[in-house]
Amino acid sequence: MEKTTSQKLRLGLFVIIGLTLFVLAVYFIGDKQQMFGKTSHLSAVFNNVSGLQLGNNVRYSGINVGTVRAIEMVNDTAIKVDMLIDNTIFPHIRKNAIATIGSDGLVGNMIINIIPGKEVAPSVMEGDEIESLNRIRTDDMLNTLGKTNKNAALLTEDLLKITNEITQGKGTVGLLIKDSSLAKDLKQTIQYLKITGKGSSESVIKLNRIISSLENKDNVIGVLKDTSVANNIRTLVKNLDKTSFEIDKVVRNLNSTIVNIKEGKGAINYLSNDPKLVRKIDSTIININQASFRLNENLEALKHNFLFRGYFKKQKKEELKEQQKEERKK
């Protein structure tokens, strides 16, 4: 059966629209996947890609700048990810940038986020490898949360036991809550402690004042803190000790002398008790004075004698020389 002209037109229009839609779809998908623009390669090494797939987006500071081109297993702890990045973005990416793997929303596809570095660094070149940061995976977080929940359950169980014992009046805390008399005694004890603490504080203040006053140089202790005064006092004490010892010796000798006098021993006893001896001593002293006077007269006579005149002149010259030497020394 031959097709009519209208059917042929409809078929041609349908084919044209379908091709147009196909071309637009290819263009938009290729543009999104950086298939038609000028791109360059950039890589990063991770120890876990967390389900990252080819074609996933690469973002820099939240902007889509490329796609994942290849994922290569280097070894059991290193996976290399090759990225296609728009050339216009390359000058903005520094060598100290960090690549991380995250998700596009809560349940979206995995993506690579490139975080700018904090310090100034040169721009990356094609084929460079930037530093990577492996974030905590969801499984690890769930395992940690499971352990935390288990510990929280154990802690809640123990806390429940403690609160039950407290409400039942067991233990020190429960006894304080249940026993009113004990609470009153404790309150009274605390009141006494406050009073005692206040008194102790006042005593400490007074003691500090006394100690501060001791630092004053007008006080005895303050004067003793002066090293020169302390040395003088030490010397004075030593001299007093020596003087006391000498005085003790004199007192002992004086006591022995007094004892001898009382017992009639020694010359003092005769002088004080024998009047005849006193008269004899007086006459003896008178005779000695007379003899001394006569002796002086004889010496004066000898000075004028021509035989002894030279001797006395020589002796006088020597005395004058000695006096002159003494005056020079002074």
Task: Summarize the structure in words.
By secondary structure, this protein is an alpha/beta fold. 61% of the residues lie in helices and 15% in strands. It has nine helices and seven strands, in the order H-E-E-E-E-E-E-E-H-H-H-H-H-H-H-H. It has helices spanning 5-32, 138-167, 171-178, 180-214, 220-224, 227-262, 267-273, 275-304, 309-329, and strands at 39-46, 57-60, 63-75, 78-86, 98-103, 110-115, 129-133. Strands 1-4-3-2-6-5-7 form a seven-stranded mixed barrel. A hairpin with a 6-residue loop joins strand 5 (98-103) and strand 6. The longest helix is centred in the C-terminal third of the chain and has 36 residues, at 227-262. It is elongated and about 200 Å long.
Describe the structure concisely.
This protein has 330 residues and is an alpha/beta fold. The protein is 61% helix and 15% strand. The chain has helices at residues 5-32, 138-167, 171-178, 180-214, 220-224, 227-262, 267-273, 275-304, 309-329; strands at residues 39-46, 57-60, 63-75, 78-86, 98-103, 110-115, 129-133.
